[in-house]
Amino acid sequence: MTQQLLPYVESNPSSTPDACVIWLHGLGDSGHGFAPIVPELKLPDSMAVKFIFPHAPERPVTINGGMRMRSWYDIKSLDFNSRADLDGVQTSAYQVESLINAQIDSGIPAERIVLAGFSQGGVVALHLLPRFAKKLAGVMALSTYMCEPTLLNSEATDTNKDTPIFMAHGDQDEVVPIFMGNAAYQTMHSNGFNATWQTYPMQHNVCVQELNDISAWLQKVLG
After folding, report:
1. Which of 70, 97, 195, 210 could form a disulfide with 188, with the two C-beta atoms 3.0–4.6 Å apart?
2. In this structure, CATH architecture of domain 8-222
3. Catalytically annotated residue among 25, 30, 92, 173
């Protein structure tokens, strides 16, 4: 039985796309949340980049009293070591992998696909990249952290060791404290992944300077 792909919002360039960015939202948001960012990136018309913003499934979230909302995984506790539910992260990573493979099947090579994620979405992106069997163009992990970092050494492959990873965090983030983001960066870096770390004077959001840096980074990895 073929798995049904996650639903998503799609933004297409004026010409036939030859690259793709798959951008995962945070807890309680949807694919519509980040879709307006595309024109703000001001990518040149010569870059034929398709953007896909998938919607996470709705599920009860423990820390929110079991309320159902779009979530890539359950959050049972705000504790640093047990915030992300591994089973949920693995399931979402599998669903995102299917979405990536669908783009590959449509004619866009894996090496022309960037996986991006904000907060919860970034957790899924950081989980999937080291375990993905095909080399991607890059990963953006924004205002996020890592699920079960101790598993990385035994589960990671070398396929995406050289893949650029843009990691960024707000130094005033009260939702995902900056030390959690930096710990994820240190874990990726110490395991030999090509990660960079950038901080911004902001809370749990994105800012103009970050968008400018993301645009420059995308033009570098997809240009």
Report:
1. 195
2. 3-Layer(aba) Sandwich (3.40)
3. 173
Say which residue, 189 or 77, is predicted with more confidence.
189
Secondary structure (3-state) at 22 = strand
Across the chain, mean pLDDT equals: 95
Question: Are the beta carbons of 27 and 119 closer than 8 angstroms?
Answer: yes
Residue 79 catalytic? no
**98 is a catalytic site residue:** no
**CB neighbourhood size of 148 (10 A):** 14
- pLDDT higher than threshold 70 for residue 3: no
CA-to-CA separations, 188 to 58, 146, 175, 216, in angstroms, rounded: 29, 9, 21, 22
For 145, list phi and psi in degrees, rounded to 5.
-150, -170
Measured between alpha carbons, how far is 103 from 60 in angstroms, rounded to an integer? 30
**What b-and-e string marks burial along 83-94, b requiring 16 or more CB atoms within 10 Å of the CB?**
bbbeebbbbbbe
The question of whether 127 is a catalytic residue gets the answer: no
* Active-site choice (119, 127, 143, 169): 119
Residue ranges covered by each domain of the chain: 8-222
Residue that is written with structure tokens 């979530």 in the block? 71
Please give the structure tokens belonging to residue 28: 């309680």
- Which among 18, 98, 204, 215 is annotated as catalytic? 204
In one-letter notation, the amino acid at residue 214 is I
| Angstrom distance (rounded) from CA 136 to CA 125 | 11
